[in-house]
Amino acid sequence: MKNTIWITGAAGKLGTVLTEHLRKDASNKIIATDLDVDITDHNEVSKAADIYQPDIIINCASISDFSACERNEVQAYRVNTLGARNLASASRKHNARMIQMSTDDVFSGTGNQRLTEFDTPNPTTIYGKSKLAGETFVRELNPKHLIIRSSWVYGSPSLRDDYFRNVLEMGKNGTHFTADTAHISTPTSIRQLSKVISALIDENEYGIFHASCEGSCSRYEFAKSILELNGMDPSCVSGTASEIPVSTLLENMMLKMTGIYEMPDWYEEIKSYISQEVTK
User: Fold this and answer.
1) Under a CB-based contact definition with an 8 Å cutoff, are residues 144 and 87 in contact?
2) What is the pLDDT, as a whole number, of residue 240?
């Protein structure tokens, strides 16, 4: 086996697709866990690592629902921060690489400039703060780390937590909904993110990498594009502007400097995703 890879949060939005993608390489031994290993329990994580003997740990486990994080700050930090700490500690013990999945929400969103891996995070939400604290533990506890930030990730097979599929479902049902015109970022498909993770593993890279599709749009433009490209009525969605504009545009500086992977334009990726994944 080339790598024994332990993926936590493997039943989640990213974990499901990433597990399937990495299993295509027969030289990888994939161990996929979700609620069966409580990452917030240091002893349980340590025992699991002793059994699995991973070369790489990829942490996809997260509480990403903004409202849920605001309602229960302790639980948000327990999963997003303490869980990352426990996995980083276990990975160091086994001399394994630690890959921590993170988010554009570690930035405040108050500016309109593109944000590189060298810009200083300044989160304003409990979700963003807890994810940044998780990043910090990973950096401090295991020098063999990769922190991968992305934005507006879509492409889960589940309706439960996937914006793309929720918009698609509302379009099919003719349900009217609103989308924010003042929230700007870059939609990024899970399949592209999975390809980046795979490439970074193969290249033995370390450090912080941004991995978002190129370009930018508002939530409203994102939703309207999904409807139009699927041949649905775009009038199902109406634009509404929040009082405080939010812009988190990640610049893939490290990917461009290393030449490891080139992210596609967000709109072209949606078209490709629909033709290859949705309509097949």
Assistant:
1) no
2) 95
